[in-house]
């Protein structure tokens, strides 16, 4: 089975929240209501979301020159 690469925007649309809210939930920063947290977590579980380690590594190196 092919696994779709979901973006933060995709997850936000599925959960009915903003992309910023998804970012706050995924990176555990800022305040998010319990109801919103549960909505986003439910979508993440449904799509079996796992962070892309390659993308994280690229983002970490982006600021280094």
TrEMBL record:
Q: Which positions fall inside the HTH cro/C1-type domain?
A: 3-50
Which range is the signal sequence, renumbered to this chain?
none
Molecular-function annotations in GO: DNA-binding transcription factor activity; transcription cis-regulatory region binding
InterPro entries reported for this sequence: Cro/C1-type_HTH (IPR001387), HTH_LacI (IPR000843), Lambda_DNA-bd_dom_sf (IPR010982)
Residue stretches making up the HTH lacI-type domain: 6-60
**What keywords does the record list, in alphabetical order?**
DNA-binding, Transcription, Transcription regulation
Which superkingdom, per the lineage?
A: Bacteria
What's the short name of a Pfam family annotated to this entry?
LacI
Query: What PANTHER family does its record include?
Result: LACI-FAMILY TRANSCRIPTION REGULATOR, LACI-RELATED TRANSCRIPTIONAL REPRESSOR
Q: What name goes with this protein?
A: Uncharacterized protein
Q: Which organism is it from?
A: Bacteroides graminisolvens DSM 19988 = JCM 15093
